[in-house]
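Task: sequence design from structure.
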């Protein structure tokens, strides 16, 4: 875990993490955010969802940024990484199926409860 923690130390914490988290939880949380920031796979996921459904609606609540905000919300949705990071083998890559498109509210709530 020490090597992994060092490798991840450059990732900024832009989310408030709880003080009572154990170290492993912090590392997994950072890895989670790191994977969600992989632009290529996020863009690929959005394209795949758009192609399959014709819109980018939150998988949890159905919120559609374009529907509510018009052009400003076009193409906007966040990607949440659903695969438990503890199940990953070293070097294993994120697949489209490991990502869910979610609105910002649902993403916050999901990550706040994120454990593995
Ligand atoms: Zn939502
Ligand atoms: Zn997430």
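Answer:
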């Amino acid at each position: 875990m020490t090597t992994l923690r060092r490798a991840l130390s450059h990732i900024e914490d832009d989310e408030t993490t709880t003080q009572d988290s154990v170290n492993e939880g912090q590392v997994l949380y950072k890895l989670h955010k790191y994977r969600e920031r992989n632009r290529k796979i996020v863009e690929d996921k959005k394209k795949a969802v758009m192609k399959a459904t014709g819109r980018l609606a939150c998988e949890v609540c159905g919120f559609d940024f374009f529907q509510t905000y018009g052009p400003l919300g076009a193409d906007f949705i966040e990607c949440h990484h659903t695969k438990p990071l503890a199940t990953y083998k070293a070097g294993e890559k994120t697949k489209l199926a490991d990502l869910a498109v979610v609105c910002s509210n649902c993403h916050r709530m999901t990550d706040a409860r994120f454990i593995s």
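The helical segments are 2-8, 23-36, 39-53, 65-69, 104-112.
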